[in-house]
């Protein structure tokens, strides 16, 4: 799934933005690899203590310690916004017009709490981001054929206004459903006015692909994949 010679996947639509770096990491990549000499080594890493929430942080400089939350937004150059995943959905956002970016951690709790929607709205307030101009990339996560959940999760999504078709019943397992994290978050983006043509979606399933990390598949594995986005250069100009 990664580019030849790179332990992460990049998205053609985002590759065309000259001031941007980004990637969805694989299981072959570790945190220390982000700081090695090269293009990414010039950035300051911003890594959260992810808490499965709707908390969004606007960062203008690297914080002295890890922030608790699940989304980061910035228009400052030199910061690499990191989301760590091992089944949850990483989402990267780029506003070409206003030169702003975001990284969002969307597990089922964050998705149900609409953390992605809140991140887009915060970008609008902070940077003037217009959803119709936003580019979004939905990375590898546990796929819709592998993510079995109980009735309480399905009910919580319904109460939060999500459509029923983000779930499918599991044959022979009453009360169990399969949740499509990418479909649920794409629905949030569509509702905000993000154009379908500007939403890239990975088809990779972390549970099925042995080159990716999956908490559900390998519960003894505590590593996470590192997904990132950042602005090159000296800022706006």
What does this structure look like?
Helices cover 18% and strands 27% of the residues. The protein has 237 residues and is of the alpha+beta class. The chain has one domain: CNF1/YfiH-like putative cysteine hydrolases (4-Layer Sandwich), CATH 3.60.140. The strands form 3 sheets. It has a 6-stranded mixed β-sheet with strand order 4-5-8-7-9-13. A 5-stranded mixed β-sheet has the order 1-2-14-6-3, with no helix packed on it. A 3-stranded antiparallel β-sheet has the order 10-12-11. A hairpin with a 7-residue loop joins strand 11 and strand 12. The longest helix has 13 residues, at 115-127. The protein starts with 7 loop residues before the first strand and ends in a 6-residue tail after the last strand. The model has no long low-confidence stretch (mean pLDDT 94).
Write the layout of secondary structure elements.
Blueprint: E1 8-9, H1 12-15, E2 20-25, E3 44-47, E4 56-58, E5 71-74, E6 79-85, E7 89-95, E8 100-106, H2 108-112, H3 115-127, E9 134-138, E10 148-149, H4 151-159, E11 167-169, E12 177-179, H5 181-192, E13 199-201, E14 225-231
Parallel strand pairs: 3-6, 4-5, 9-13
Antiparallel strand pairs: 1-2, 2-14, 5-8, 6-14, 7-8, 7-9, 10-12, 11-12
